[in-house]
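Quick review question:
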């Protein structure tokens, strides 16, 4: 089945109470709120049947309504964006695939969304994410840059904040020898699989790495990694705002 014949729902989780940057969805970025810029960027995708902002805050709800977007209020108690997407998926069960789009990437490139959707050309794909091979040694040793190793079928074997594979015993330049892979945190799930994921119990593995996707691998779910060469800056902390402002036209 081609991605064009699938009903694909784009969900943008947006919460107000971020520990590192409260209220950032409402941040003004050259005359538009961050959530508006994310929404408008996502809407450029031609493969999404519908786009919804999933929030837990009335201020964000009002802002999305103001610029004419679709918004749904969700529970205050979701521990992750995946759980928030799961609530939306329960409300919109006539969609085949749900794509979880980061609400803190105001320069989101719709081509990443379209690339991710190609994974579902294979009917056996249940979960998909993106990886990029534009990797530096700084990325490899930076615990905030998530690394991936994949199998011969482009399914993830593991995600880590540590350098993987480990190159302690390699005598040359690691980047010249191995095609290191870095994760880009855009996820797509079959709707029924997403319902299963949000009911899985947390694991020690995900807790020690602080990576939710390790829970899915632990319970035997396959994650297809789609290669991209597109990356856009996100706003995680206040110090990130300037680089995004500089990149806005």
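Suggested answer, residue by residue:
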């Amino acid at each position: 089945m081609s991605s064009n014949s699938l009903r694909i729902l784009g969900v943008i989780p947006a919460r107000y109470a971020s520990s590192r940057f409260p209220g950032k969805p409402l941040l003004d970025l050259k005359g538009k709120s961050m959530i508006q810029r994310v929404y408008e960027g996502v809407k450029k995708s031609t493969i999404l049947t519908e786009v919804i902002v999933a929030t837990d805050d009335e201020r964000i709800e009002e802002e999305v309504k103001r610029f004419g977007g679709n918004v749904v209020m969700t529970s205050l108690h979701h521990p992750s964006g995946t759980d928030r997407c799961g609530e939306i998926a329960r409300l919109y069960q006539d969609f085949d695939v749900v794509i979880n789009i980061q609400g803190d990437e105001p320069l989101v490139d719709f081509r990443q969304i379209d690339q991710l959707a190609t994974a579902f050309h294979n009917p056996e794909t249940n979960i998909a994410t993106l990886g990029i091979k534009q990797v530096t040694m700084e990325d490899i040793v930076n615990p905030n840059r998530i690394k991936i190793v994949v199998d011969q079928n482009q399914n993830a074997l593991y995600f880590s904040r540590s350098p993987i594979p480990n190159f302690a015993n390699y005598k040359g330049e690691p980047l010249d020898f191995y095609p290191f892979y870095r994760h880009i945190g855009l996820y797509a799930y079959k709707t029924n699989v997403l319902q299963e994921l949000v009911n899985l119990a947390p694991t020690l593995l995900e807790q020690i790495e602080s990576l939710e996707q390790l829970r899915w691998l632990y319970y035997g779910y396959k994650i297809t990694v789609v290669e991209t060469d597109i990356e856009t800056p996100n706003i995680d902390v206040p110090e990130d705002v300037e680089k995004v402002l500089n990149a806005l036209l």
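Why it works: The radius of gyration is 18 Å. DSSP finds ten helices and eleven strands in the chain.
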